[in-house]
Specification:
The protein is built from 2 helices and 18 strands. It is mostly beta strands.
């Protein structure tokens, strides 16, 4: 069994100088329908920043936004002199930030907070866990662990597949240094199987299978990525052919139990259960 050290928001206390800087927007890239990656730069080298710290950004041209917005430091690219901010556009302030364009200026207070504690032994197996936009600080954290000779493992989650962010950057390299990489990227589509035979494909996690006869089925689902296919997840379903009570049920309908005995009561007056209803629309099973 592999042993892991789970690194959460443990803090290391180090006094660092704070700055108020007007940083230039280098690029704004949409990662999903509500997430953007903002890359900032300056004409001078950016200050020292630690994984787990954050910046407070001033939101201009947003009348309803009075306070600065705290944004986690996603990554610091020293070679390009860039600070990366991963922003979820879910409020007036963050939606305004998502509208920034290259060349705009963003006023930032940085770095704030106490960064994550770095592992003391590069041989430790470190598990970094995050979900949604909460994965933002893990990219820089993982890169710093790699630089010290460690091998972080990432466990990333999200509400939907499209909310899994920066998967192309959370890539794995083998310990032997062969530089073979697994880069799954985003889900391209899903393969749908019925009893082992491919039924079709879906570009979304939700789909409908129509016109299945009554019976039991094994439904299989595979997520297809650019360079890989997930294991098949299987589900057992039963198609009963039983209808549900409808508002348009004929008032003169005849109701029977499953033994075929006619019941002298209206359907709405019967207890919950499964019945046979005969009316102008024909005979059918109904679950009440």
């Amino acid at each position: 069994m592999r042993n892991f050290v789970a690194i959460t928001n443990i803090r290391t206390y180090k006094s660092m100088k704070k700055f108020i800087l007007d940083l230039t927007v280098k690029s704004v890239t949409a990662l999903s329908d509500k997430h953007v990656l903002i890359k900032l730069t300056d004409d001078k080298p950016l200050p020292e920043m630690l994984p787990g710290q954050f910046v407070e950004v001033r939101v201009d041209q947003s009348p309803s936004t009075f306070l600065r917005r705290p944004i986690s430091i996603n990554f610091v690219d020293r070679a390009a002199n860039e600070l990366w901010l991963l922003v979820a556009a879910i409020g007036d302030g963050t939606r305004r930030l998502a509208q920034l364009k290259a060349g705009d200026v963003l006023n930032c207070v940085l770095p704030l907070g106490n960064g994550f504690t770095m592992p003391t032994d590069k041989a430790q197996k470190v598990l970094l866990v995050g979900g949604g936009v909460g994965v933002a600080p893990l990219l820089y954290f993982g890169q710093q662990i790699k630089e010290m000779g460690g091998e972080p493992t990432f466990l990333l989650g999200a509400r939907t597949a499209t909310d899994l962010l920066e998967l192309d950057l959370f890539k794995a390299e083998p310990a032997d240094g062969s530089n073979v990489q697994q880069d799954y990227g985003n889900v391209l589509h899903y393969n749908i199987y019925i009893d082992g035979s491919k039924h079709g494909e879906s570009t979304t996690p939700s789909f409908t299978i129509d016109n299945l006869p009554e019976g039991s089925y094994t439904i299989g689902i595979e997520a297809v990525y650019k360079n890989a296919v997930s294991e098949t997840a299987t589900y057992q379903i039963v198609v009963s052919g039983i209808d549900v009570v409808r508002a348009d049920t004929d008032a003169n309908a005849q109701v029977y139990n499953l033994a075929g005995q006619k019941l002298n009561a209206r359907l709405h007056a019967l207890p919950q259960g499964v019945y046979i209803v005969k009316d102008a629309n024909g005979a059918r099973k109904v679950r009440k």
